[in-house]
Write a structure and sequence with these properties.
This protein has 220 residues and is mainly α. It is built from eight helices and no strands. The protein has two domains: 47 residues, Arc Repressor Mutant, subunit A (Orthogonal Bundle), CATH 1.10.10.60; 124 residues, no CATH class. It binds a DNA duplex (21 and 21 nucleotides) through helix 3 and helix 6.
Length: 220
DNA sequence: AATTTTCCCAACCGCCAGGGG
DNA sequence: GCCCCTGGCGGTTGGGAAAAT
């Protein structure tokens, strides 16, 4: 039996108060994102480290984008979900300012309905096993690659006929995605087209590379 | 206006992977 | 290779708000 990450009886649970938020913000502003386990005590919070991390990443981080999703963000999520399945962190990595939790909630509460309304089964329009194998092969072939330094380099797909087949039921998709470094959520404000000079770093060059919003229009 | 139902989303939970000793 | 610790991920839940009755 795995021991709990912290003593739940001594900790607050549920919604965060403004005071708790402020303590967390103040501490991280001063010390950065150090050890989450020791952070609560150091910051004077009666929370477990995991809870602090989640609160910071999903809500308090200054670069978190709140508010309604744009049409092109919808398109991108639908497209990426078709390719990647429920890999929310990868999908969120393509949406600057959006978190995996937010994307997941948005998918479950809005996009599923939207797809159903379009006559698409949201659970069946994801990547086939063939594509998953392609991804896995790519990942393992890159094992040991030097220094992607915590960024989640991930393959999407470059105009594969296969990808066309994978998009079962998603009409009029522009599948002209390519391989790139994901947006690094740990570095506020950093967009994909700013990332390390890397041959794979051309993800969004098809789009206006000067744009602050690297999402793609997916429906033609 | 009061009550019930539905929906949304912040937060929690459990599992897994990677790193260090 | 094994164990422990930590961070990260995806699935699920519960409370509150909004909508329906």
């Amino acid at each position: 039996m795995r021991s709990p990450c912290c003593d739940k009886q001594e900790n607050n649970r549920g919604a965060w108060s403004k005071e708790e938020d402020q303590k967390l913000i103040d501490y991280i502003t001063l010390h950065g994102e150090v050890s989450w386990r020791s952070l609560p005590k150091a910051a004077g919070l009666l929370r477990c480290g995991k809870s602090c991390r989640l609160r910071w990443i999903n809500y308090l981080r200054p670069d978190v984008k709140r508010g309604n999703f744009q049409e092109d963000e919808d398109d991108l999520i639908i497209k990426l979900h078709a390719l990647l399945g429920n890999r929310w962190s990868l999908i969120a990595g393509r949406l600057p300012g959006r978190t995996d939790n937010e994307v997941k909630n948005y998918w479950n509460s809005h996009l599923r309905k939207k797809l159903r309304g379009m006559g698409i089964d949201p659970d069946r329009q994801r990547a086939t096993s063939a594509l998953a194998r392609r991804r896995t092969a790519w990942e393992s072939s890159n094992d040991g690659d030097d220094d992607t330094a915590g960024s989640t380099a991930d393959v999407v797909v470059t105009n594969y006929e296969e990808a066309d087949r994978c998009s079962n039921g998603v009409p009029d998709l522009n599948l002209d995605l390519t391989i790139s470094m994901a947006w690094d959520q740990t570095r506020p404000g950093r967009m994909p087209d700013e990332s390390i000079g890397n041959s794979t770093d051309q993800a969004l060059d098809h789009e206006d590379s000067t744009s602050a919003n690297p999402t793609l229009l997916l429906f033609r």
